[in-house]
Amino acid sequence: MKSFFLCLLVCQFLVVTAAQTLEEIIRRNDAFTILASAIDLVGWIPFDGEVTMFLPNDDALSLLDSKYLTPAYAPHLKTILAYHIVPDMILSFDALTDGYVLDMYAGTGSVLATVNETGTFFSGASFSDARVVNLERIASNGIGHEVDKFFWPSQLTWTLLDLAGIVQGFDQVLQLVAASGLEEELKEENRTILAPSDLAFASLPAQFVSQVTSDPEVRDDLLRYHILIGSLPLEAITDGMQVMTALGVPVVFTISGEGNSRQIFVSNPSYGDAISVETGNLVAKNGITHALSGVLETGPRPSVENPVAGPVNSPANDPSESSTGSSSPIDHRTVASLFSWLLFYFSFRY
Ligand SMILES: *[C@@H]1O[C@H](CO)[C@@H](O)[C@H](O)[C@H]1NC(C)=O
Ligand SMILES: *[C@@H]1O[C@H](CO)[C@@H](O)[C@H](O)[C@H]1NC(C)=O
């Protein structure tokens, strides 16, 4: 009789547990309230099939910089969540043996398991020793392992300047930035870079390019016109939205189409063509880069000597977030897959 009741309890528990999705397990457990609110912010990670997910508990996520739990950092948060998921694989606690290498959600990097007498631990390029603190939770669509530290993806140790160097096709912009001394600006907190690709520069009249490269004032104005103060993810952009640049002259965003054909354009509200955002939401620790198919111009082209004379905002330096150069070495191999992942990811979101 006793065992019957025990079975009634345990078996029912097993059935109920297995019937829940991973998301339900997270939402119904008091240990994961921060993880649940992160999912509220960015939506459930889109994946097909079964997954293994590492579930950082509230003690772990209370150490996450709270800016990442705001809509302005939604792409960062998506990257963080994706780095906790092994797609298409159910790895029970027993399967996580010493030396096991886990390939996390496309392009976010890999994670190494260490098992010894004190427990089962996980480390990646930019975090170490996250320990499994609870037995696995079996869900209808996968398995979850509670951990006492969050997994930190390498992308979020890069500054915007690092990112521009890692992603191919931005040599022109990088050269201009290096010549202008604006590098510190790209290491500062909370910036959004509208980055014209090399192809964008190649399509400009040679005369204009030579003016930009030879005239420091034109060059610096042009660069500042591609920097927004604050983190502006694609999700936050609305049709007709004007945003102030570091130059002190606004840009205007327009949106056409919906769903998968949604396209975002940016232009100078009083001059020039609308330029499309090609690959958006590339995350770095201090902001976001949106790659542009063209160059935003601050005013009429060459010969007419008429640079925009608006006050130049030189945002105050934030000493607390100066780049120390201590970030871990960059894994160039992840970048190609980072892009495929981003494209894959956002094809679900738009
Ligand atoms: C960056 O943005 C976040 C969120 O908007 C804010 O909490 C933080 O204070 C900002 N940092 C700086 C240096 O402006
Ligand atoms: C077990 O591994 C963890 C993670 O690498 C490490 O921090 C810990 O010191 C190890 N413990 C022993 C007893 O080796």
UniProtKB/TrEMBL annotation:
The keyword Signal applies. The keyword Signal applies. Residues 19-151, 157-296 form the FAS1 domain. PROSITE patterns: FAS1. Keywords: Signal. GO terms for cellular component: extracellular matrix; extracellular space. Residues 1-19 form the signal peptide. One of its GO terms (biological process) is cell adhesion. It comes from the Eukaryota. One of its GO terms (molecular function) is cell adhesion molecule binding. SUPFAM superfamilies: FAS1 domain. Residues 297-329 are annotated as: Disordered. InterPro entries: Adhesion/Biosynth-related, FAS1_dom_sf, FAS1_domain. This is FAS1 domain-containing protein. It comes from Fistulifera solaris.
